[in-house]
């Protein structure tokens, strides 16, 4: 039976302590925060989890933490991207051991951008993981392959286990429209990316979900609920209020996510392993001012 993905599916960051070691207890708190905020699912590990910096053992242990904390209450999408099919399959088997079927896979850039090469890669993975539900991640260059919407449709047609597409090329909106206009019958939906910076356009075009960072999960749940209730004005109000912080998040990435989680009392460190721009005092003051505007930080603290 296929599990459905919809709504807010945040990518969980990997918390590290001051010495750069993974902090499993902090990941438990992050997962609890997301679930308590009302998200429909969580994603781990993804690019925003600094997945490239994690060893296989760290990756396995942290996914176990997420699975235990979620406890079946919401969906889990396990990141399974890797340079080779053998590695993707190995990640998929680890996820299956925790009862996770949904796998997000970004085709290796080494494959190129032709439909045949990408479909062949995914077919090899699907054959080894017959119960997997594949979310095909189409990331923009230079990190991703930047597949055209025509290529995406061709790949999906060739691979029945690809039942979702996470479309995050820029601009994503026209690509989402094209994929849905030519969707194969087994494609259950398209999921937006881009850190929720384009979520209203994605939803207006028919996206079924979006995958933001986690630090504003409660705000994103409220936005999603308003949209689904038909209150587009409220959804836009929430979107406009959160957009300045999301714009900063596009620059500072995981550092901002972790700083906001610190400000919200969820983690104790904003240490990162991945190359990420530093936050100086002025940037931190700007972030705090945005948090105060959202009511997530007292004005007195923002002024310090």
Question: How would you summarize what this structure contains?
Answer:
With about 300 residues, the chain is an alpha/beta fold.
Give the arrangement of secondary structure elements.
Layout: E1 7-8, H1 24-37, E2 41-44, H2 56-70, E3 75-79, H3 85-97, E4 102-105, H4 115-128, E5 133-138, H5 149-158, E6 162-167, H6 172-181, E7 189-192, H7 199-204, E8 209-210, H8 217-228, H9 232-263, H10 281-293, H11 299-302
Parallel strand pairs: 1-8, 2-3, 3-4, 4-5, 5-6, 6-7, 7-8
Helix pairs in contact: 1-2, 3-4, 4-5, 5-6, 8-9, 9-10
Give your account of this protein's structure.
This protein has one domain (7-241): Aldolase class I (TIM Barrel). Helix content is 47%, strand content 11%. It contains eleven helices and eight strands. It has helices at 24-37, 56-70, 85-97, 115-128, 149-158, 172-181, 199-204, 217-228, 232-263, 281-293, 299-302, and strands at 7-8, 41-44, 75-79, 102-105, 133-138, 162-167, 189-192, 209-210. Helix 1 (24-37) runs parallel beside helix 2 (56-70) and helix 3 runs parallel beside helix 4. The relative contact order is 0.13. The model is unreliable at 299-304 (pLDDT under 50).
